[in-house]
Amino acid sequence: MEVVRSESGVRSEKIAAPVAPVIARTKRLQVWFIRVCSSILLWTCLVQLLTVGELWHHSFINIIAPSVKHPPLPLLPLIKALTYRISQKSKSSFMDAIRIFLSISVTNLASMEFQICDMVAVTRLLNLTLVVPELDKTSFWADNSTFEDIFDVKHFIESLRDEIRIVRRLPKRFSSKYGYKAFEMPPILPLFSKQKVLHFNKTDARLANNGVSIDLQKVRCRVTFQALKFTPEIESLGYKLVRVLHERGPFVALHMRYEMDMLAFSGCTHGCTKEEAEELKQLRYAYPWWREKEIVSEERRSQGLCPLTPEETALILQALGFDKDTQIYIAAGEIFGSERRLAVLRAAYPRIVRKEMLLYSGELQQFQNHSSQMAALDFMVSIASDTFIPTYDGNMAKVVEGHRRYLGFKKTILLDRKRLVELLDLHQNGTLTWNEFVFAVRSAHEKRMGQPTRRRVIADKPKEEDYFYANPQECLCEGTSCDDLLGPGNSSSVP
User: Fold this and answer.
1) I need a surface site. Which of 272, 342, 357, 494 has the fewest CB within 10 A?
2) What is the mean pLDDT of residues 476-485?
């Protein structure tokens, strides 16, 4: 108790409150409150890190420290140890809530591999969940095959489980049965955060060939050379074809892109009759999505943009030194003009064979009317051949070239069609003798045999530079340097 006296002199008494204990309790409450809030915030952050970390895997570390060649100790084990009490059910629900699905449509086998590889890289880069690709059934080829009919889906998913999440199909709640419609769009990045399901119906706009991080290039390597494996049925028959061919001796796989769709859409009619040229033109006009309608065939040919005709191919093979006894496997669909157009080539090389000639009709029956599955057989034979020669450098040719480089730079003759057209015309009009023609053809292809070389880079014209899939040098070398394999000065950059 404290006695106080006022200014008037009146004496009074005042009980002093216990000030110190009250202040102490207040501080303890504040500390306790801060600790609780901090703990809640920390646990929330840890849960989010766990989820994001499991989705990103290795890319999580790469984004945080992209310049570190040897990343620090992984964070995921620590995060998992601190959050082991979180139930699998709540964890699964949380991950489902933030998951964004990417579904894609891919075209024929010739384009399928690089389309799938690129979309896996996009999925990894943007931290999405990939739905097993669907095949476009509305294209010229009218093939109703599914992804499962061509590739081993289980192997595909298992091979990439450390890179991305893959599901066989969309969850039911996102199906059209429940009134859900996938969002189709050009790949505009900000929209990814607003949609749950995205569908790319055109995936042939390729990723860049160069200037891509080594990690993403390695992902493309993994998809190309490990994850995409044909079904056991296709592999079994493909291996049989290769075995039968090798028993008959060395063979050349000739990828002749002299097929109706190629000629119609490219406008290449050299060697065709007027009636055939008109038929091809009408086919081109019948497909509205093909924008270029009026095409001058000879201009295209002089620019090297047309496949060689069967007659031209016969002359080039002879000039390159392949004798009459060479076994030639035609890796292609139906040649336009059929046996009439093949007559000159067959006369020069009587040992021409096709898969239909080497297998029983019953063995091919399950693949009939499925162009992608038939192409898969040709793909296997082309990779296994002693020499591979494409008469047009389309998607199929590029992918086969890349696989043959990966398998030890197997001989692949990449025809310089622009130069060859000039030489063919000079020889056929009598300007070049046969010996001069042979010398010129061989000289033009000395460095076009699939030897080790760096990918050609054209900084301001990316569409004209070499494709990653034709020369996947990052897949051929350990680490980031290819000097041991390609040589430090072996650069194909174009200023």
Assistant:
1) 357
2) 67
Looking at the predicted structure, is the pLDDT value of residue 187 above 70?
no
Strands 2-5 and 11-14: antiparallel
Distance spanning both ends of the chain, measured CA to CA = 95
Whole-number Å distance between alpha carbons of 480 and 458: 20
Three-state secondary-structure class, residue 472: coil
Whether the per-residue pLDDT at 171 is higher than 60: the answer is yes
User: Quick one: pLDDT band at residue 93, thresholds 50, 70, 90?
Assistant: very low
Using one digit for the tens of pLDDT, what is the confidence trace for 224-241?
Answer: 999 999 999 999 999 999
If pLDDT is split at 50, 70 and 90, which confidence band does 108 have?
A: confident
**Judging by beta carbons within 10 Å of its beta carbon (0-12, 13-18, 19+), is residue 358 exposed, middle or buried?**
middle
Structural tokens at position 36: 């609780």
pLDDT tens-digit map of 414-463: 999 999 999 999 999 999 999 999 999 999 999 999 999 989 888 888 87
Q: How far apart are CA 143 and CA 175, in angstroms?
A: 24
CB atoms near residue 145 (< 10 Å): 20
CA angle 482, 483, 487 (to 5 degrees): 120
Structure tokens, 34: 């801060």
- Please state, in angstroms and rounded to a whole number, the distance separating the CA atoms of residues 139 and 261: 11
Q: Where in the chain are the domains?
A: 19-93, 99-227, 232-486
Helix (H) or strand (E) holding 4: strand 2-5
pLDDT, one tens digit per residue, over 48-69 is 554 444 434 433 323 222 332 3
Quick check: pTM over 0.85? no
**Among candidate residues 64, 61, 85, the one with its CA nearest the CA of residue 73:** 61
Sheet holding 327-330, edge to edge: 352-353, 327-330, 251-255, 387-390
Residue 25, classified by CB atoms within 10 Å of its CB into exposed (0-12), middle (13-18) or buried (19+), is exposed
Q: Is the CB of residue 319 less than 8 Å from the CB of residue 428?
A: no
Contact 277, 250 (CB under 8 A): no
User: Residue 328 pairs with which residues in a beta bridge?
Assistant: 252, 352
Question: What is the spatial distance between Cα 310 and Cα 317, in angstroms, rounded to a whole number?
Answer: 11
The alpha carbon torsion through 336, 339, 344, 346 (nearest 10 deg) reads: 120
Average pLDDT over residues 258-269: 92
Alpha-carbon gap, residue 215 to 297, rounded angstroms: 43
Q: Tokens 């669909």, residue?
A: 333
